Amino acid sequence: MVFAFTARAAAAEAYEDDETFVAGVAEQENGGGRELTFMCCLHEPDEQDIALGMDSYCLVTADQGTVYGGVKEVRLKDRVLRVVVDSSNLEALGLDDAEIEVTLDVDDERIERLREGLRRILAYGRPSDRPAILAL
Asked: Number of C-alpha atoms within 13 angstroms, CB side, residue 4?
């Protein structure tokens, strides 16, 4: 069964102090409820990142389930964000299904910022971790 929810919040922005770029969606306008957050560093991966397996973007769920890489597909069309993760990451993410479908109940400007943010984040790091299908 697809993990699905309606997001009333969507954002993408750089956090210079944390050296991180973040894009995400959340069920509630205040960022609560079900959520998906994609992140990458503002700098290229260094030797320590590579040694720790942190040389890719990461995906975080509402329960703080986190994986680096592992997204197979991302599509954003008709106000629906569809994400497919590698099934080997389900336990780490706290998900029962590899398919995630988020209906975006936000304005067009936020959707465009999310689209641009996801393009940036999902191109970060190891090429082998980039989604095979990226339709943004």
From this structure: 5
Residues 25 and 6: their CA atoms lie apart, in Å, by: 9
**Using alpha carbons only, how large is the chain's radius of gyration in Å?**
14
Q: What is the mean pLDDT of residues 75-102?
A: 97
Q: What's the Cα-to-Cα distance from 114 to each of 6, 15, 46, 48, 128, rounded to whole Å?
A: 15, 15, 26, 29, 23
CA distance 93 to 35: 12
Residue matched to tokens 């398919």:
99
Listed in order, strand segments (DSSP E) in the chain are 3-7, 9-15, 20-26, 35-41, 58-61, 66-68, 71-77, 80-85, 99-104, 133-135
Residue pLDDT, tens place only, 7-17:
999 999 999 99
The amino acid present at 41, given as its one-letter code, is: C
